[in-house]
Design goal:
The strands form 8 sheets. The protein has a 5-stranded antiparallel β-sheet, with no helix packed on it. The chain has a 4-stranded antiparallel β-sheet with strand order 2-33-32-31. The protein has one helix at residues 34-39; strands at 2-4, 40-44, 49-54, 60-65, 69-74, 81-85, 91-96, 103-107, 111-116, 119-125, 133-137, 143-148, 151-156, 161-166, 173-176, 182-187, 190-195, 204-207, 212-217, 223-228, 233-237, 242-247, 256-258, 264-267, 273-277, 289-291, 299-304, 310-315, 320-324, 330-334, 341-346, 352-357, 361-366. It is built from 1 helix and 33 strands.
């Protein structure tokens, strides 16, 4: 892995390859299912788990499935899941709704719906198109966003359309900062950064040639980073427009996110959890931390804890674990063998972890002190 200004920079020496318990070349602990067995609730669905999410109050968990259903579990009784027929086709995207007690779901039927234990409630529809990405920001000035082709539609908490933001090509990812003031959208040849409440919608254009497939924005809105088609990341420092290129991945990065205070960017796409430092002027010329790797199995999903510098990671063989950046310690959550991890999420209060796999296995793990 190398990080530096685009077009140059020496390659710093990488950290020693770490096994999944954090130490060089050590085997995976034998009790890798201990947390799943003692603190987990398992669900077996008959469809690909597309996404996992928790509602804004950390009372409900939801799994969006490839068969168009959303399964909702109340965390007070996580063993029972209600099936909601959300879409006529596949569920493509799922997130917490701006209002507690529900979720936003987008499907290949062109529907944007609010999902809660009572059912699916239509918010907007674009017949013949796909709602591929959804995002919502709760609290004061709450809003919802849905990406449909080149357009990102913004709605208020009541479901009324606020505005439509049009991009030069299909929107491939949505992200917002901690305060919900800015919306970052990835697309071909770069990204666009919008002020959600602006009276005149003129985005900051973040240009870089190529296909940008996912996006993250730091909590303080100082940095925007996209995943690219050619197994690399590209970033921009907003204050001065400086470019950052992070390369060396053996596979495409499909999952990325900043830690709670924005000090690190955690990413998938390698045989370890790759964490780029974003203190000071960012990762330029700095080596990343490579955590919980060494077994030649790719990380498929990452999720940063909402308070601590702890990252949940899911692997292509079904392994799920937690790793702490400072100590490099690793805590297995679920052993391999249930299919590639396709969905991973923390509850807003940091107590619960949800994950799902391509085979329909799903689980909720409770990390409350005992």
């Amino acid at each position: 892995m190398t990080g530096g200004r685009t077009g140059g920079g020496a390659t710093p020496p990488g950290p020693a390859a770490a096994s999944r318990d954090g130490s060089p070349s050590s085997p995976l602990p034998p009790a890798a299912n201990f947390l799943l067995d003692t603190r987990g609730t398992i669900h077996t669905f008959d469809a690909f788990v597309v996404a996992a999410a928790f509602d804004a109050d950390s009372r409900l968990a939801a799994f969006g499935l490839g068969d168009g259903t959303v399964r909702i579990a109340a965390l007070a009784a996580p063993g029972s899941a209600t099936t909601i027929e959300a879409h006529d086709g596949a569920c493509l995207a799922l997130c917490a709704d701006a209002a507690p007690g529900g979720f936003l779901s987008g499907g290949d039927d062109g529907e944007l719906r609010r999902i809660d234990p009572e059912g699916a409630h239509a918010l907007a529809a674009w017949p013949g198109k796909w709602v591929e990405h959804v995002l919502a920001h709760p609290g004061k000035g709450a809003w919802r966003a849905a990406a449909v082709g080149k357009a990102v539609h913004l709605l208020d908490a009541a479901g009324s359309t606020l505005k439509t933001l049009v991009h030069p090509s299909t929107a491939t990812g949505l992200a917002t900062d901690a305060k919900g003031r800015r919306l970052a959208v990835s697309h071909y040849n770069g990204a666009s950064l919008w002020f959600v409440a602006a009276k005149e919608d003129r985005p900051t254009a973040l240009a870089w040639k190529g296909s940008h497939t996912a996006i993250a924005i730091s909590p303080d809105a100082r940095y925007v980073v996209t995943a690219m088609q050619e197994n690399a990341l590209h970033g921009w420092r907003i204050a001065d427009g400086a470019h950052m290129r992070m390369s060396g991945y053996p596979a495409k990065t499909k999952s990325l996110g900043f830690t709670a205070r924005g000090r690190w960017l955690a990413t998938s796409g390698a045989e370890s959890v790759v964490c780029w430092p974003f203190t000071g002027d960012g990762p330029m010329g700095k080596a990343p931390e490579e955590l919980a790797g060494g077994d030649a199995v790719l990380v498929t999903r990452v999720a940063c804890h909402p308070e601590h510098e702890v990252i949940a990671a899911g692997f292509a063989d079904g392994l799920v674990l937690l790793t702490e950046i400072a100590s490099r310690k690793v805590l297995p959550v679920a052993a391999p063998g249930r299919g590639p991890v396709s969905a991973l999420a923390w509850s807003p209060d940091g107590r619960w972890l949800a994950f799902g796999t391509e085979t329909g296995f799903a689980a909720l793990v409770d990390f409350a002190p005992r």
